[in-house]
Structure formats: structure tokens, C-alpha cells
Amino acid sequence: MTPTLVRQHTSHADSAARVDPSARARDWSEIQERMLVPLYEAVYDRLDVGPATRLLGLRCGSGLALLMAASRGAAVTGVDSASPERLALARERLLPDTPPGRAGSRGGSGTRARTTARLAADPPAAGTDPAGYTLVTAFEPIGGLAGDSEGLGELLADALPLAGRGAAVVLAGWGPPERCATSSVLRVATKLADPVCGARTWRPSRRDDLEEVAARAGLKPDGSGRVACPFGYAGLDSAVRGLLSTGLFDAAITATDAKQVDKELAEALHPHRRPDGTVWMPNVFRYLIARVP
User: What is the pTM of this model?
Assistant: First the structure.
């Protein structure tokens, strides 16, 4: 199997001032990204991801979903221009001991030893692989930032020419706010960012978000599902760091300051603390499977 990590050139939310991108990327990788593992597993099980799968992961972040697919035997390609720091962590996971720009080097032990890779600076050109990708995933949930569905549409416009006819395209989004305990916490981001004109802040998900994106991209819906993805943290500090790593609070930090956001975020999390100090928030995420015509 041949995982490939490449950067995708597309517009995305600008990093907020006074945010350390490297620290945020590490928090995402170590704390937050695992919260979506049930979503990855449900999709891979439903689509029987395995050695015959050629997967293109959009906004692959620090690469956990890619690693899980690779462990099933899939050939995976990851693209992400939004965070070079997250992409560097994905490289560490999938291509350990491989200097940037080197190809075909083998990794270390365990799961990593089963992956080899070729790195490229740009997305593969259409027609490079005549067979095309059999699966395109966009696991970063939409319905979190105003305008995020439009950004996903731009990504799909670039990616779909690389997919074969009939390939599955998986879109993911937040579930109904009433079924996502984290929604009440994310409202802090909107409240604090109000002074920033035009700031891209959190918004409640809409029922047809994913279907609208698929329709605009010319995809044919072929099933959907809901997956429980509870957010569980060892403590309040871990919860704050994990949620900040999503980028959903960056506009709030720009409008106020990091300390103020930390304080109000911690206060919003208090109702979700358990007697042992852990933080637990049940959530439901949606996914839509569509097909390339």
C-alpha cells in the first residue's frame, strides 16, 4: 500500500492572531482528533475499506483517519493546505524516519512499519492514475463554521476529477444541536467573536448541509448515517486545549484575547464535568455517502 501526503491549495479559515499553530496542531493530534474515531470506523466498515481501496483524504489533518485506512490495507493520499503543522504530524505518523521530499522510505515498527510513501509538493494531476481514487473522504465536520460548506465545495471541485466513476465520496457534519452537548460550549465562540465584523464563527448545523454540498458538486447521494462521537477528556485543561485546537475559537481570540476565551470556555465546560474531574459531552455526527456519476 502506498500512502501519499500532499498539500492542497485551497482557501480555508485564516489562523487567528496570538495562536501558536504548532501547539494547536499537537493538541489536535494528541487530544481532539481521536474523538472522531467512531466516525472513521463506521464509514470504513460500511464501505469495506481494504486492499482494493485507493483513498483520497481531504483536509487530512494529522493523519489519524489515513493511518486507520492504511492499517486495513488501503492505499491512501492525504491533502491539506489549511495547516502545514498538522500535515507535518501526519508525516510523522505515516512516514516516520522519512525526511520531507524523500520517497519510498520505510518507517519504524508496528503499524508504521507497514506503510511506505511518496511525498509530493502538489496534488496529483488529473489522469495521473487512470483508475482514479475509489474513495474520497472529507471527515472534517461541516456545520461548525459559517461558510464551511462553501469551502468544502471548493475542495471537492479540485478532488472529484481525480476519482473514478462510481467512486464513493464521504462528507461529514455535526449532528442536530440538540443531540450535540458540545453545541452549548461552541456558542461561546460566537458570543465572544461578535465584535469582529465578518468573523467566521460557529453556527448550528442544518439538516441538509451535507446534501446541499453533494448536490452542488454534482454527486448522487447513496446513503447516510449517524454516529455517536462523545467528546471525553481527562480534565478541564485537556478539554480546553482540545476544543481550542479545532480552530472554532480563533475568531473569538482575535476579538478578545486568549485568556478571556480560556476563562469563558472553562466556565461553559463546568456543567459537563464529572465527579472524578473528567469532562464528558455526548455528540452525534452525520455522514453522507455520495457517488461520482
Answer: 0.85
